[in-house]
Write a structure and sequence with these properties.
Largest sheet: 3 strands, mixed
Number of helices: 8
Structural class: mainly alpha
Strand content: 5-15%
Oligomer: single chain
CATH class of the largest domain: Mainly Alpha
Distance between the termini: 49 Å
Order of helices and strands: HHHHHHHEEHE
CATH superfamily of the largest domain: Cation efflux protein transmembrane domain
CATH topology of the largest domain: Alpha-lytic protease prodomain-like
CATH architecture of the largest domain: Up-down Bundle
């Protein structure tokens, strides 16, 4: 419905600024379908084929979505620059009130969706992407309405110039989002607060743990892979050591942001870190 309102507003008014908001709105249904399909793919996992899960497909889908939005923005920049260079308008463009009302309705609806997704943005990675989309749409639709009215009331060049500025803004916002998603896909380290939480849980897990040697956590898509090295009594039985390590692994994997946890048991801390820098990174 929002895409239909934006489409009507752009065609009826002929405003390049509203065409920019319309292009952004038309991709929303397509991108939402893509996000839904990727979310369902994550929930249908064959453990024999994907032993580590398919959570990273969410991040890959988010990156594709970002680049689709950037591609549309670059196309609109070219079209607006061509019309601006032609300078075919000598007067202001006609003002079309129903188009402005249609985009204003879309703006109000996006504001409601923005507030709803804001409450869930830290719980689901895809909801965060939608929240960012609504945030960008509020800025884009608001500026699009202003530049469209300015092209009708003040000067003709305000409309194509506004379309270029809005398209550049859209491209910048989504390229920045794509960069952050790439970081998650590559395997950037978890933030300091999360590392501190993992360390605290490991230290207080059992009185049999003498020390914590190493704590690492890195992203594998939206969730984390955790690696912890605990120091146990060398004279402790294998059964006790195994039970402590396994219980700690289960506890760490129960955290909402952790995909998988690996616990390594050792008896001293004077050695070099295990399983690190084994290969040239």
């Amino acid at each position: 419905m929002l895409a239909g309102l934006q489409l009507y507003g752009a065609i009826a008014s002929g405003s390049l600024s509203l065409f920019t908001t319309m292009a952004d709105a038309l991709f929303d249904p397509l991108s939402n379908v893509m996000l839904i399909l990727s979310s369902r793919a994550v929930n249908r996992v064959d453990p024999r084929k994907f032993p580590s899960g398919k959570a990273r497909i969410e991040t890959a889908g988010n990156i594709v979505f970002c680049f689709l939005m950037c591609a549309v923005s670059f196309i609109l920049i070219v079209l607006s620059a061509r019309d601006l260079a032609a300078g075919s308008f000598t007067e202001t463009t006609p003002f079309h009130l129903p188009s402005v009302i249609a985009v204003a309705i879309a703006f109000t609806t996006k504001l409601v969706l923005f507030c709803y997704c804001w409450a869930l943005r830290n719980k689901y990675s895809q909801i965060r992407i939608l929240w960012e989309d609504h945030r960008n749409d509020l800025l884009i639709n608001g500026c699009g309405i202003l530049t469209s009215i300015g092209g009708s009331k003040l000067a003709w060049w305000i409309d194509p110039m506004g379309a270029i500025i809005l398209s550049c803004l859209i491209a910048f916002l989504w390229l920045r989002t794509a960069y952050s998603e790439f970081q998650l896909l590559i395997g950037v380290s978890a933030d300091t607060q999360m590392l501190q939480l993992i360390t605290y849980i490991s230290m207080t897990h059992s009185p049999f743990i003498r020390a914590i040697d190493t704590v690492r956590a890195w992203h594998s898509g939206p969730r984390l892979i955790v690696e912890v090295d605990i120091v146990m009594d060398p004279n402790e039985t294998l059964r006790a050591t195994h039970d402590v390590a396994e219980e700690l692994q289960t506890k760490l994997e129960s955290l909402p942001d952790v995909e998988r946890a690996y616990v390594h048991a050792d008896y001293e801390t004077s050695h070099a870190p295990e399983h690190f820098w084994k290969k040239e990174l």
